[in-house]
Design goal:
single chain; tt1808, chain A; two-stranded antiparallel sheet; 25% helix; 34% strand
Length: 180
């Protein structure tokens, strides 16, 4: 049996049916539309991070849906994408044509294995410096930094006390604002 490898051109021809499509090394990954809880958390994180990034002049934050074309056969759509000044040149009219500085994924029932294993490996293989995993059930955000070919945990937002997470060490994140 021959495996079919899809490309970005195949990807853009997919239907606009409310599902989230991604290409993982040429293989189609499909997930249902996010839940309201998932979207609230993404919105909260965007409202916290975007003003900080804008004021600091240190890049740009994008809210999903926003394609990151890592290669012609790997296209991902993180929940939030941060592009620092160095990588900002990779933003084109159609997408981010390369790796973001930070990819943020909010876990959902259907995405836990994909986000914690498959996408983490894809992000590492494609030089995404930072990866945050927000877990609504545990009420945690894990901040990972790329170290060689794998990620190393650099910090966790948990409990009720505000704290900073890299790469935004001057921004105090309040858990109450994230999980509201």
């Amino acid at each position: 049996m021959t495996n079919i490898v899809l490309t970005y051109e195949d990807f853009v021809a997919l239907p606009d049916d409310g599902k989230r499509y991604e290409l993982h090394e040429g293989e189609l990954s499909v997930s249902p539309a996010p839940t309201p809880r998932h979207q609230r958390i993404i919105g909260n994180l965007f409202l916290i991070l975007a003003p900080h990034v804008r004021v600091s002049g240190r890049g740009e934050i994008f809210l999903s849906p926003f394609d990151c074309i890592l290669t012609n056969i790997t296209v991902v759509e993180p929940d939030l994408v941060y592009v620092d000044e160095e990588r900002r040149r990779l933003v084109s009219e159609r997408a981010l044509e390369g790796s973001p500085s930070l990819a943020i994924e909010v876990l959902s029932t259907y995405s836990i294995n994909t986000d914690r294993r498959r996408k983490m490996a894809l992000y590492a293989a494609h030089d995404v410096t930072w990866y945050w995993i927000a877990d609504p059930d545990a009420r945690t955000i894990e901040a990972y930094r790329l170290a060689g070919i794998a990620y190393r945990l650099e910090g966790v937002l948990e409990g009720t006390q505000p704290r900073t997470l890299p790469p935004f060490l001057e921004l105090l994140l309040d858990p109450a604002a994230v999980w509201a």
